[in-house]
Every structure is written in C-alpha cells, then in structure tokens.
Amino acid sequence: MTETNKNTLSSESTKEKLINEGIKQFALYGINGVRTRQLAENAGVNQSAIPYHMGGKLGVYTAVIQKIATDLSQASQVQAFDSLLSNAVQQSPVDIEKISQLVTLLIRGLGNALLLPEHEYYSVLILREQLEPTENYDVIYRDFIEPFHIRLSQVIQLANSLAEQSAIIRAHVLIGQVLGFVVARKPLLKRLKREKIDNALLEQILQEICSMANNALINAR
C-alpha cells in the first residue's frame, strides 16, 4: 500500500470516528453544548483532527446531518415503494390491496428509520433540527423528509382522488402517528414499564400504526 493510500485511509477513519461520536454528542447536548476537546477524546482522535479534517465543529455537525439524512432515506424503503407504485397506477380501478401494501411499506420504512434502537440519536437530532433549525435543515428536508412526504401524498391521492393540498395534509397526519412515538417515547415507556423500544415492541407499534392508517384510507374512500 502506498503512503498516499495509507493517509487516505487514516483520514477517512478519523472522519468516521468523529461523525459517529458526533451523532451521540450533538443529539445529547446540541451544537452549543458540545466541546471539541470532549468530542475528540470520545472519538479517540487528536483534537487538531477536527479543524484539519472537518473544518471545525460545525463541519462535524454538517457531516453528521448528511449521514443521518442518507441513512434514514435508505431505511425508509422509498425505492421498493417506487417499484410497487409503478404497478399500482397501471390498474384501473386501483386495487385497494395494493394501496394497503404501499401505505404499509412507507409507514414501516419511516418507523424503522426513526424508531430502531440503533437510530435513537438520529431521531433526537431530527427533532432538534425541527425545533431549532440550522442551515443544515435543508439537507434533512431535501434528502429525507420531502421525498418521503411526496410519496405518501401520492398514494393518498391514488386511493381517494384528493386535491394535492388535502393529500399533503393527510400525509402529514399519518407521519405524525410515527413521530408521536419519537416525541413521546418516554411517557410510553413509563406506561409500558419498559426501558427502551426494542425490536419486538417496535413491531407491535408499527402493526398498530399501519392498521389505523389503512383503516383511515379505506373508510375515506
């Protein structure tokens, strides 16, 4: 391996360590509450690596948001949705079973994206950006929120022949069913006497949300 390749691998490894630790630190303390020294120590790198490799603390935060947006987009199953939707729109009348599959696919994708145990800090950072948007909010919106919102609106229109604005509002309502478990995670866990949302509980949550979403769409037809 050449010296150049070694340096490249070292640089990428350092960036990865900072980003992975940054996800946790920024979720827990916000941008202003994170200290570069602590970030570097927890990541196991030299403090000088932050300005050298990332351009400073804000550079780490930008990279963190980009990773989260990319990971959540992949987890939300929009590619599988697109394939199923292309088949559904060719049928007339629209098969309600296909509508149900499309809604279920999206809701499950969003639920897994935001509620998987390993994504806990992701959802916290998403909430921070919602409440106190930074210049990085557009990355989350462009790469994750908007594409998902558009697809859910499309399937709602397909099911009920609604005007675009009504479909967008209904899509937001359905998304809110998932976000409710993000925002109010702690009271739910207290009521259930649980420490965390594990995979079994997440599966039950998603089953209930998907059932309610599909019933709402069918009854609105």
* Residue windows where pLDDT falls under 50 for at least 5 positions: 1-9
User: How many extended strands?
Assistant: 0
Radius of gyration: 20 Å
How many domains is the backbone divided into?
A: 2
Structural class: mainly alpha
The helix/strand series, from N terminus to C terminus, equals HHHHHHHHHHH
Please name the CATH architecture of the largest domain.
Orthogonal Bundle
What does this structure look like?
- By secondary structure, the protein is mainly α.
- It has two domains: 1-55, Arc Repressor Mutant, subunit A (Orthogonal Bundle), CATH 1.10.10; 61-220, Tetracycline Repressor, domain 2 (Orthogonal Bundle), CATH 1.10.357.
- The protein is 82% helix and 0% strand.
- It is built from eleven helices and no strands.
- It has helices spanning 3-33, 36-43, 49-54, 57-75, 78-88, 96-115, 120-131, 137-160, 164-183, 185-192, 199-220.
- Helix 1 (3-33) crosses helix 4 (57-75), helix 5 (78-88) packs antiparallel against helix 6 and helix 6 (96-115) packs parallel to helix 9.
- The model is unreliable at 1-9 (pLDDT under 50).
Helix-strand blueprint:
Blueprint: H1 3-33, H2 36-43, H3 49-54, H4 57-75, H5 78-88, H6 96-115, H7 120-131, H8 137-160, H9 164-183, H10 185-192, H11 199-220
Helix pairs in contact: 1-2, 1-4, 1-7, 4-6, 4-8, 5-6, 5-8, 6-8, 6-9, 6-11, 8-9
